[in-house]
Amino acid sequence: MPLPIALQLYTLRDEAAKDYTRVVNKVAEIGYAGVEPAGYPGTTVEAAAKLYKSLGLEVVGLHAPLPTNEKKNEILDQVGALGCKRFGCAYLPPENFQTVDGIKRVCEQLNAAAAFAEENGLKFYYHNHWFEYGTVDGQPTHKIMLQHLDPKVELEIDTYWVQTGGADVLEVLTEVGSRATLLHIKDGPADNKDSNMVAVGEGVMDWHKIIPAGKSAEWLIVELDRCGTDMTEAVAKSYQYLVKEGLGRGSKN
To answer: By three-state DSSP, how is residue 63 classified?
Structure first.
């Protein structure tokens, strides 16, 4: 059976800041089966949780700060309100990945987050960008990370950023294996970090090879950081492409 499709709500952040309820209703109307929140503009996590539930949208996970001492309770409160089992780190600054020692420090932070998650019956994941797929001292950055990451750290592989960073997406998915529990799906030219993205299926990404290679993935999560066309239309087209091609399923199929 095809994997269920969710939307990272950061994609519609501009529209959500004006009317969060309308935007989430639109996501459900399109047919998405789940959402991945990254903040709740104009509302609260409790109100957002009620809205998702009323629309039958499963919360796949949420992007949250690393669980430093002052953030631990906030994260637990959010996860509890949303009723989800995962939270993830969406971004760490690229300068952290410029030396082997810097990469080791990142891994220590992520390992500590995964330990905190496990202590609380949760799972923790890390979401990559393009800079984790460069090289440091002649070694691929992501391979250094894999050497130092605890197996408990799950990976939300942003397939588009992997390709933009210059790595082979299929090889990366094979390397990370069962760690890759979530796949971020975006499309575009994959030529540099600043290029406009397009609806899934309208860019260079070979989804018929990439998605089956994520053998341990539980969800496909559409995310477009920016787009040269109407974002809501691109979100709808992305969903329709994945369903039509038999690559994913929503709430209506």
So the answer is: strand
Domain spanning 3-249: CATH 3.30.300.30: no
Q: Which of 35, 40, 90 is nearest to 61 (CA)?
A: 35
Give the per-residue pLDDT at 9: 98
Name the nearest CA neighbour of 61 among 81, 36, 44.
36
pLDDT of residue 253: 74
The tokens of 182 are what? 């979530």
With CA atoms as reference, report the closest residue to 180 among 156, 158, 161: 156
Dihedral sign (CA 181, 222, 214, 157)? negative
Two tokens, residue 237: 């087209």
The answer to whether the beta carbons of residues 71 and 61 sit under 8 Å apart is no
Distance separating alpha carbons of residues 245 and 33, to the nearest angstrom? 17
CA–CA–CA angle 142, 60, 190 (5° rounding): 40
Domain positions in the chain are 3-249
Show contacts of 168-175: CB within 8 Å, 24+ apart. Answer: 169/205, 169/210, 169/213, 170/209, 170/210, 170/213, 172/133, 172/142, 173/210, 173/213, 173/214, 173/215, 174/213, 175/142, 175/143, 175/146
pTM: 0.97
